[in-house]
Amino acid sequence: MHLPLKMSQSPTKATNPPRHPPGLYTLFFTEMWERCSYYGMRGLLVLFMKATVEKQGLEFSIPMAGAIYGLYTAAVYLAAMPGGWVADRLIGAQRAVLFGGVLIAGGQFTLAIPRTDTFFLGLLLVVLGTGLLKPNISAIVGKLYPEGGARRDAGFTIFYMGINIGSFVGPMICGPLGEQINWRLGFAAAGVGMIGGLTQFLLMRGRLKGAGAKPEVATVSRGDWNLLFGALAGLVVLVALIWSGAVPFNPLKVANGAKWVIVAIAVFTFLRLFFLSDLTTVEKKCIGVVAVLFVAAVTFFAGLELAGSSLNIFAEQYTNRMLGSYEMPASWFQAINPLFVVLLGPVAAGLWLALSKRGRDLSLGMKFGSGLVLLAVGYVVIALGAQRARAGPVWPLWLLLMYLLHTMGELCVSPVGLSSITKLAPARMVGQIMGLWFMATALGNLMAGLIGGESTDAKQMEHQFWWIAIVAAGIAILLMFLARPMRRWMAGIE
What we know:
Blueprint: H1 23-50, H2 62-78, H3 80-91, H4 93-111, H5 119-143, H6 149-181, H7 183-204, H8 222-244, H9 251-275, H10 281-304, H11 310-318, E1 322-323, E2 326-327, H12 336-357, H13 364-389, H14 397-424, H15 430-453, H16 458-489
Antiparallel strand pairs: 1-2
C-alpha cells in the first residue's frame, strides 16, 4: 500500500512531490505489529501484578508493581544501546530487527505460561528482543532518506503513525482478554501480534533495497563477537543466580539504584564522545544538541509514560467506565493516546512541511519546548480531575482531554526527536546515538514507574500531577531560551 504524504494531479516532475520510499511501509507495518504486541501487554502489566491471587494476579503492592513496571519499560529502551551496537558492528540492522522479533514473541508466550517463576523470564526476553528491534528499525527509516530535510521528518511522522496504530489495537484486543477472561490469554494475544510483524517483515523485506542489510563497519571483528558472547554468558549466569535465590532481587531497591546507573552511563557516554572519540568540532556540537534533547526527553517521557502506572490505576479506580451496561476495561484508556496520534499525525506532518515551505519552520528547541508545555497543561487538567475524584469516580472526559494535550505534545517531541537523532548522529555511529535517545526514554520510563508507585490514592495523585506540571513547564522555558544556540550548533542540519 502506498500512502504518499501529498498527492498531485499534475504529471510533471516539477510539481509532483517525491514519493516516500516503498521500504517505509515495510517498516511501518513491522513496527505496527511490534507495538501492538508491546502495548497490548503493557496495558495489562500493572493491573495484573496488583490483582489478587483470587483474580489470578500476582498480588504485588502498588509500589512494588510500579518499580517492576519502571524497571521493565526502562530496560526495554536501555537495551537499545547494545542493540544498536550489535547491528552497527556485527549483524546489520535488518537481521537485528528479525532476531529481535523472534525474542519478543518468545517472551510474550513465556508470560502466557501460568507460572509465577517464568514471569520475569518472559519480561527479560521481551527486553532483549525490543533492544534489538526498536533502535534499528528506526535507523533503517533514516537510511531511506539520505537527503534529510523536512521530507525525512514527514517520513518519520508517517512511521510514527504505524507505531500508534499498533499501540491502539494492542490494548483494545489484549485488554478485554486479560482483564475480563484470563490475564495469560492477554499476554498470548500479544505474542500472536509479534508473529504477525515477523511474517510481514519477511514477506516485504525486499522493498528495503539493502538499507541496513550489512553492518556499518567494513570488517567484523572477532573481538566484538567475543564481547557479545561474554556479555550473554554473564547475563545467563546472573539470571540463574537470581532464579535459584543465591542473589536476592528486590525490585524497589534495584529500580532506585538503576536510575543513578542510567544517569552515570549517559554522562560517561557523552563525555567519551566529546573527549575520547575522533569526532570533528561540528560533530561534537551536534552531540551537544543531542545532550540537550536527552534532558528534555527524560522529562517528557517521565510524564507521558505514567499512562501505564498512575494513570492506568486512575482509570481503574477513579473513573466511571460504564458504557451503558458494559464496564470498559481500564486498559482501553491507554488506547486513547495512540488513537489521537493516528488522527493528528497527518496534520502534524502537513504542518511541518507547510511551515518549511514558507520559511517559518519551528526550530528543534521550540518544537520540544512546545511539547513540554502541552504535557504540563495536560497534567494541570488531570490534577483537577484527581481533586474531584476524592468525592467519587469522575467522568472519562478528564482523561480524554489530558490525553489529547499529551498527544499534541508527543507529536512535537517523539517523531521529531527520532528524525533529529538520525540527522545529528555521525554516519558511522547512528545505531549507538539512537541508543542514547532510547536511553533517555528508558530513564523517563523508570522515573514514571517509581513516581507511579508513590501514589496509592486520589489525593496523592493530585499532588503528584501538580509537581509534574511544574517541572515540565520549567524545562520547556529553558529549552525555548536555548532554541537559537541549538540551531547554530546544528551547523545547517535541517
